[in-house]
Fold this protein.
Amino acid sequence: MLNRFPLWKNLMVIFVIAIGALYALPNLYGDDPSVQISGTRGQQATPETLSQVQSTLSAMNIQPKSAVLENGSILVRLESSEQQLPAKEKISEALGNNYSVALNLAPATPQWLSDIGGSPMKRGLDLLGGVRFLMEVDMNTALAKQQDTLQDSLRSDFRKEKLQYQAVKKGENFATEVEFADNDTAEKAVRLVRLSHPTLDILVNDNKVTLTPSAQALSESRTMAIEQNLSILRKRVEELGVSEPTIQRQGADRIVVELPGVQDTARAKELLGATATLEFRLVNTEANVASAAKGIVPADSELQNTRDGEPVVLRRKPSLGGEHIIDATSGTDERGLPQVSIRLDTKAAR
């Protein structure tokens, strides 16, 4: 059969096939067994960390294919999977708790292909293996915490306006029941609540007022809880160095996390399931930092290091805990510098 197409069409077909074959090449190179090193608690890997990793591998007579520091984390490519576990254990021992060390598979795509945007297709769990987590957000606990915060706020507002109440207690469906001495006080309180808490549905029965979060407010609270957990999980997955993670909401209160290629499932479970604690502590300005660095620390204080490695003496007793934080937003101050604005509950604000 003769080819009756014009020359330019034949050339176009050849060109498209050539481009497709070029960008399909990364799938032929496979993966390198690797070890991913990332900083924890906001810390980043440094050139000194890279040198320490290389020295550790050299002492084990392991010659890696490459060890690269990029975006605050280190990726060590090894020759075989048999080297992975021993290398991971020794590196973890050398770096301590300030770094997360995980087993991984890194695409072996040549640099020249990566430079033109070539990358292997996403194979997912079916083809690459890995681990899948299904997590459920404890909505009842989150909403109960908001209920406690609301009750503290109401007590403070009523005392400030000199509105005498007899009891503030929890009701069904995260409602708050407030009982006043008389109907007149209850009416004044209702007017105050409508101004300060417009998202509450209010039911008045003589001197008893029932405050229930509206359906929209409950939906927004649930969405906020999910979004906060999604953000936290994404940051934790970054520490594992997974190239093709899937983190998405499923249903009303569940989150699916898929980590293709992850071999250290125990480490992934430990990292994703860890409970974070936020504390605010005052700096002990009376303590001598130089003496503290030598081990002479006041009994009510302890020595810690900043993100930059600078020593600082902090009070042992926290002045504020994370349970008092209602919301936090990032932004910039009047000088254009980054800042974080935190909104506290009534108890902490006092």
Q: What stands out?
A: Residues 279-349 form one domain. The chain has eleven helices and 17 strands. The mean pLDDT is 84. The longest strand covers residues 31-39.
